[in-house]
Amino acid sequence: MSAILECSNLSKRFGSVNALSGVNLTIEPGRIVGLLGPNGSGKTTLIKLTNGLLTPSEGEIRILGELPGKLSHSMVSYLPERTSIPLWMTVDQLLDFYSDFYPDFDRTVAVGMLENLGIRGNQKIKEQSKGTREKVQLTMVMSRHAKLYLLDEPIGGVDPAARDYILNTIISNYNPEASVIISTHLIADVEQVLDEVVFIRQGAILLQSTVDEIREDKGKSVDALFREVFKC
Predict the structure, then answer these.
(1) What is the Cα–Cα distance from 15 to 119, expressed in whole angstroms?
(2) What is the pLDDT along the chain (232 residues), one digit of tens a residue?
């Protein structure tokens, strides 16, 4: 099977600022990958390029061999950093919307997840707490049968008690032939679910390694190595 994601000499500039510089990165199928770096390191820029929301200044990015576009959009399920679901809808209306808009959306899976979270279908999204909205949006994203899931800070706004449920949801709801990229700065919380990590700083890739290699070769957790690499 082809690589899920391939970046070749990928760069993105905003005016005189280099958000990404010469990124070369390959993500294989069946991997949960942590995209890890401090704020302003280029994580969100890379995710938006992958989702086709930005265009490269230089280089190329491909999803299962396809340039970002209509075909790649059908293979990518994207969770933005900020909640973007329509606040005027009820949860049931949102389920209808996703069912109509995404052919790969599995409503049965979504309803089961929402029931486990105690979220009612007749509840309006604007009446929910910020944390509940984030759970609803993640449920919608993970209920698609996509090839690549792009999750930008999926646990940043939820309480610690809900993080384990959300991470277990991510593990159990993706196709083993698909891959998941989790962008986060909460390393200790996500480390348990990651297969590999990509460290990024100032738009450049510092490290791509499996979690097992970090533990065996360096004798450290991912969180400990992150703190060492990115210490002030």
Answers:
(1) 44
(2) 589 999 999 999 999 999 999 999 999 999 999 999 988 899 999 999 999 999 999 999 999 999 998 888 899 999 998 888 889 999 999 999 999 999 999 999 999 989 988 999 999 999 998 888 888 998 999 999 999 999 998 877 677 777 787 788 788 777 778 999 999 888 888 898 999 999 999 999 999 999 999 999 989 999 999 999 888 5
Instruction: Show the domains of the chain with their CATH numbers.
Output: 5-84+146-229 (3.40.50.300)
